[in-house]
Design a protein that fits this description.
Elements: E1 6-11, E2 16-17, E3 37-42, E4 47-54, E5 59-69, E6 72-78, H1 86-101, H2 128-135, H3 180-189, E7 194-199, E8 204-205, E9 225-230, E10 235-242, E11 245-255, E12 258-264, H4 271-287
Antiparallel strand pairs: 1-2, 1-3, 3-4, 4-5, 5-6, 7-8, 7-9, 9-10, 10-11, 11-12
Length: 289
């Protein structure tokens, strides 16, 4: 036994330990609904396990594992290269050792955590070790290769209208085009198509992903990313990456500068994610050409 067992919850956005959750024995009843919280375990074999919410905030999944050696967390492995970030790993190094040492005087029993990473990547994807090396900057993050190059928009042929002969009688004026149907069509055409990738880990639009035409090659690359698309009629779709392609997880209508009439099948987007997506869409629409 290298040290006492300890487990606790942290808020990764505010970088704060929820002190009332610190325990020095396994907690089989741990539960929470805040997507920005993690459950941290450091067992008696110095193994650190980080768990986060999954499946619409119903269950916990292992997203990272490391080994506490002295004051440092080494042999790190993580599922997503974007989370935990190097800054969050450094913060965990600062808080895990000191929190665990408080159990020395409490006579904490010996306990172990047999957890492994929640999923093994396919052979075509990076291994957990390579994912960590990408997060640490030791390996480059491979670029997302587009599946196809979209064809350029068709150009309208130029022409010169024929000039009627001088003797031809003047044509009668055409019927007015402005009416209820034409008014609705013009209101719809005044909108702009917009799509982008949003990173909920850092609560921001991912740089260089804003598009004003549909781009099927634009896909989320991590579990904390979603793709938002808003068409000229204000219909909004929220998508995430699945095993067989993109999956629509939410629908809404952009109306009165807000996401209205929301529909979804699972637990995501949750309330926090809807708010973040709404703020991002409002900001990007204000910058659209």
């Amino acid at each position: 036994m290298s040290g006492p067992f300890v487990c606790f919850r942290v808020n990764r956005t505010s970088r704060a330990i929820l002190t009332e959750t610190i325990k020095y024995e396994p907690d089989p009843m741990v539960s929470f609904t805040n997507p920005f919280e993690w459950f941290i375990v450091c067992d008696s074999a110095d193994k650190l396990v980080i768990r986060a919410l999954e499946n619409g905030r119903q269950t916990l999944a292992v997203i990272a594992i490391a080994q506490l050696r002295g004051l440092r967390l080494e042999v790190r492995r993580q599922v997503d290269h974007a989370m935990p970030t190097t800054a969050l790993w450094a913060w965990l190094e600062d808080v895990v050792f000191s929190t665990r040492e408080l159990g020395q005087t409490r006579g904490a029993p010996e306990a172990f955590d047999a957890a492994e990473l929640s999923s093994a990547p396919p052979p075509s994807q990076a291994s957990p070790e390579e994912v960590w090396q990408m997060a640490a900057g030791m390996l480059p993050i491979p670029p997302v290769r587009p599946s196809f190059v979209p064809a350029p928009p068709p150009t309208r042929p130029s022409f010169v209208p024929a000039t009627p002969p001088p003797s031809a009688p003047a044509a009668p004026p055409a019927a007015p085009l402005w009416g209820p149907v034409a008014a609705q069509a013009m209101a719809a055409a005044s909108g702009r198509y917009l799509e982008f990738l949003f990173d909920h880990a850092n609560v921001m639009v991912i740089a260089d992903t804003v598009r004003y035409v549909p781009d099927p090659s634009l896909r989320p690359s991590g579990r904390y990313q979603m793709k938002l698309a808003c068409d000229p009629q204000g219909q909004v779709s929220i998508q995430c990456a699945g095993d067989d392609g993109m999956i629509v997880i939410g629908l809404a209508q952009w109306r009165d500068s807000a996401l209205c009439d929301r529909k979804q099948q699972g637990g995501e987007p949750d309330d926090f994610q809807w708010i973040a997506l709404e703020d991002a869409l409002r900001a990007e629409l204000s910058r659209a050409p």
